[in-house]
Amino acid sequence: MHPGLWREVWILAGIAAASLLVGALTGRPFPIAAFGFGLYIVINLRHLRQLHRWLQNRQSGDIPDAGGLWGDVFDELYRMAKETGRREAQLSEMLTRFQSAASAMPDAVAIVSRDSEIEWANPAAARLLGIRYPQDAGMRLLNLLRDPEFAQYLQSGEYSEPIEIESPETHEMHISVQITPFGSLQQLVIGRDVTRLARLEQMRRNFVANVSHELRTPLTVLGGYIETLRQIDKIRPEELRKHLTIMHEQSARMQRLVDDLLTLSRLETSPPRTQDETVDVAALLAGLKEQAELLSGENRHAITLEADPDLKLLGSREELTSAFQNLLINAVRYTPAAGAIRLTWRARDGGAEFVVADTGEGIAPEHIPHLTERFYRVDTARSRASGGTGLGLSIVKHVLLRHDAHLEVESELGRGSTFTCVFPPARMQRAEASRSAHNAA
Ligand code: ADP
What we know:
five-stranded mixed β-sheet; 441 residues; binds adenosine-5'-diphosphate; alpha+beta
């Protein structure tokens, strides 16, 4: 038995013994018993009242002082109260920490009840999901997120996968929302901005559709001619030659498309080069000018080249050749016969620029920002007819990006266009440096 309880038993036994003793001596045991037990009850009632008062007003008063079993009870209660206080402080600190961490999160976080009433939300929830806390506390989630698919998701109770919806704040923002039930009565709603991913996915879909579309036409033409050739003995020789020429053109078109796609994919996926070559741009351009003249053929464009031979560029000769070639081919393609094409390689702001200026058909201003997008063409039929793939300027953009350079386009409808590749000073091989390297060799 508990020692405190023993003590109480001894007191009661003492009172009983004293009453019996006095009763034996005087013949009247009851007054002593009544007095002893009464005093015992009064003392206990007093302690009980003290305990009641303390329980009612725990914060302000100290725990009452008492001996015996009451003292033990008071001590135990005091220890429990202290422990509860410490736990409460710990919990409230954890809650504050959780709230400040959730507030700093870029993702939307909201806590809703099982009835989908908003209990709490972080600041990002306002931006992504239009849930403003504390103003919207108690509101139903579906009153704020009115997307029918989300309503279905919420009601289904099947939350293993997130759902993608448009943000109620702006239709341009795509949000991936996932619900996670926790505890027995609450749900965590997490919203993540996936606009960039959605855009990339759309780009991927467009890309696949574009490539398929580009390949379908030549394949259909080829298929048609192959079908005709099955009855080769019925075809006249001159007709056969015509068929083969068209088949050759179509296969060349597919070849160009695949080559351009491979170049683009290499540019996008290969890591940046660690070792740059010193590219003699003037010499490279002299070679490209000759190729452009060949391509121009009977159109007899007046192609001129002005290049500073001392300006050498640090980069990849292969990639730069591909970019410059694309600009030159475009100038030849989109400039009518006898037009002029001027190529210039010169210093600019400590760096250098390569300028291709033509007197061709020009480009309307609304098209200019889109020219470097894959498969973007001002006049699709015209581009295809001249052997274009719609990927040339995308290749130019990527090559320039890999050389810390950028493309400037100026154009006027009917007057001509100027494409300028601007290279920063860090990409230049200084004349002295190249000369000393040359001497050392
Ligand atoms: P394409 O293979 O169709 O030439 P590009 O990406 O090289 O593809 O060019 C995209 C579009 O930009 C072309 O289809 C054409 O409409 C326009 N363009 C490019 N260069 C010129 C130019 N020098 N003059 C006029 N239009 C041009």
